[in-house]
Backbone:
């Protein structure tokens, strides 16, 4: 498996919508269609957020169930990583984690921190833009309760790391024995604000700080970072995430037509580096996840 790289495709998120790229999927039928295309292009994990009929982020288990059912009915055997995110959109924490008990997915996201400042200073406007604090967990005891919820329902957490302090939280939860090995860790880099920059030096520091034998990948946010980080990630033994949640462009100034197009480009880059995209079967083996029911 040393030449197999897992590609996760993050189909849609909890922030930008069709105003950023009209091809970003919002409704279940759009998410299903683009998920199938991304899987056929080489993605072995699909990361899924849900939207309501107005295109707003939702934690409604019924909407997630519709998306999951549609993907499976289309023959898609990718691992489905359901989002418990949406804090940035104001979704309450307890609502966001209902999908774990309701659907028992193979994987679900778990942002292991208290929260992060977001925003950047716009010199042209002489003001801060996107300036806010996104609250995640109020205490370690609550984080441990959620980690236990994952374990009790057989769902592997994708541990979301936005800065190095959150790795300390992973170590703390690991010591409590509530995380299953190997740890699955998503290093999110490049968001303006209190988030690690998308540089090779910062990546090396994060990777060297992880618990041994962790399986990790990088979400490099924004057009400037999205594809150029694939080389160093693969060189360090990591895996890759692409998708319209993280970047709406396929090239300089050119909007992507679909998530599948982004996956196709990632596959081309991997093959130029002498690697191959992992199949869903490969990915389950690497992550030590046994294929269960419909998820």
Residues:
């Amino acid at each position: 498996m040393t030449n197999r790289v897992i590609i996760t495709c993050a189909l849609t998120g909890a922030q930008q919508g069709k105003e950023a790229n009209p091809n970003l999927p919002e409704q279940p039928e759009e998410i299903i269609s683009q998920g199938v295309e991304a899987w056929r292009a080489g993605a072995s994990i699909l990361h899924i957020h849900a939207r309501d009929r107005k295109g707003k982020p939702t934690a409604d288990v019924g909407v997630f169930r519709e998306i999951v059912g549609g993907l499976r009915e289309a023959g898609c055997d990718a691992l489905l990583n359901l989002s418990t995110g949406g804090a940035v959109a104001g979704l309450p924490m307890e609502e966001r984690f209902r999908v774990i008990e309701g659907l028992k997915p193979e994987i679900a996201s778990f942002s292991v921190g208290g929260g992060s400042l977001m925003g950047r200073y716009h010199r042209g406007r002489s003001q801060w833009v996107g300036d806010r604090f996104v609250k995640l967990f109020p205490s370690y005891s609550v984080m441990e309760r959620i980690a236990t919820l994952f374990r009790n329902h057989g769902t592997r957490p994708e541990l979301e790391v936005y800065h190095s302090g959150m790795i300390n939280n992973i170590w703390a939860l690991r010591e409590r024995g509530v995380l299953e090995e190997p740890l699955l860790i998503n290093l999110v880099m490049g968001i303006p604000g209190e988030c690690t920059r998308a540089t090779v030096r910062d990546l090396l520091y994060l990777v060297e700080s992880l618990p041994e034998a962790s399986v990790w990948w990088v979400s490099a946010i924004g057009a400037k970072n999205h594809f150029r980080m694939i080389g160093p990630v693969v060189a360090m033994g990591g895996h890759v995430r692409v998708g319209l949640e993280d970047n709406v462009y396929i090239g300089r100034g050119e909007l992507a037509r679909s998530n599948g197009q982004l996956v196709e480009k990632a596959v081309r880059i991997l093959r130029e580096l002498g690697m191959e995209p992992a199949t869903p079967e490969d990915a389950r083996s690497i992550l030590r996840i046994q294929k269960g029911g419909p998820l």
In short: The domain at 4-286 is CATH 3.20.20.70 (TIM Barrel). The first helix runs from residue 28 to 41. The chain is about 35% helix and 25% strand.
